[in-house]
Amino acid sequence: MEKKPIIPVRIKIQNKDFDVSEETNILRGNQTGAIVNFVGVVRGFDERNNNLIDSMTLEHYSGMTELEIEKIVKQSYERWSITGVTVIHRVGKLLPSDQIVFVGVSAKHRQNAFDSCNFIMDWLKTKAPFWKVEENNYRKKWVDYNLSDDEATKKWV
Amino acid sequence: MEKKPIIPVRIKIQNKDFDVSEETNILRGNQTGAIVNFVGVVRGFDERNNNLIDSMTLEHYSGMTELEIEKIVKQSYERWSITGVTVIHRVGKLLPSDQIVFVGVSAKHRQNAFDSCNFIMDWLKTKAPFWKVEENNYRKKWVDYNLSDDEATKKWV
Amino acid sequence: MVIKYFSWIKEHIGKSEELIELPDNVKNISELINYLNNLNDDYKKVFIKKDLIKIAVNKTYCSFETKISNNDEIAFFPPVTGG
Amino acid sequence: MVIKYFSWIKEHIGKSEELIELPDNVKNISELINYLNNLNDDYKKVFIKKDLIKIAVNKTYCSFETKISNNDEIAFFPPVTGG
Fold first, then answer.
1. Largest CB tally within 10 Å, which of A153, B67, B126, D64?
2. What are the per-10-residue average pLDDT scores of chain D (83 residues)?
């Protein structure tokens, strides 16, 4: 069996914003024909509970978060032929329309980049230990987990 | 039946490069939770024919290109709940690792953004009238179309 | 009628565009191709590769049977390779 | 043993982390929860919501039956909501 080449993987948990162009440039290269980026954005309205959101604070379990994301990236790498992965997740206080998460995957062929990026996001949503609390003038509410996120992972089984 | 809201759609054919951050920022907004970007990159090696690529020139059928991309975006919009689409395709001379194409889709929910972006790329590959010619010191070769691109569209039928 | 050619078809025919007056007996794309083939061998060498030829009438994909008139813009090109 | 709490569990219990000496008769997570429940009602109010509790031992997901020792780092948290 052909051994897969080692690929560059970057995983960052940070408060500061990220630059999608910079991240895309890092993923570009001679062997790469396709890059798929996912960017999660803070919404200004909680549709399930009909609440305005003024801000959101993200908490995480330092150490375990990185380990869980590494596991997900490794599974993705074993499943698809890809040339690089970057995952950046912000923590701390964020405002509506702020960027929360970046998942970028490069590959020779586009479908591998699409599937791998989609896979990483689906599992990150259900496995990586982050918790959001949404705030407005009247209340502070820990976001309920979404059953549809568990459903989403079933397409990869 | 609920009428779908009109969404912002930007389609550009241009020689100059694009900035993925700028494009992502345009797609961000209060109603958007997810953005999926596809970026196509010029490869430095033609694996099918075992040739180095020094440069590539993209030709297109002005007018028809825009119409075909509009049709694809419209189909995508009818099929998924999305909040914005940007398609930028470069033409003229490009070098290895240059960006060729950007497809960005925003949506409330991530799977719609993933599927819509993937759909637009698959159909753009088989319908939008662009042609690539690859150049190196010894030869100039019009790129053969790829049967796997036709195959890729079948998943949407 | 305007006829446009792209990619290697343009190079084989030696022009990217030409204006022709559509003869009365040419009613569809197949007949147009027959007409062009009779003009010179450059056309023949291109149109023999029927499977590799895509056609558009007024910037919309069409087939060999599509009806045409003298006001139409026709385009012949190979399968697309963008993206 | 270090025990960490996150999100609303942290708020209900009133601390993000605590150090306890694991009693000899506590061998797995279920027994640890029983032990904590007997300390005060804050724990009981949290651990009654068994379906909403995820557990990690040494930063790896585990189950109520997972064996534990005094050197382990345990974490209790709700289903994750990042991304």
1. B126
2. 98 97 96 96 95 97 97 98 96
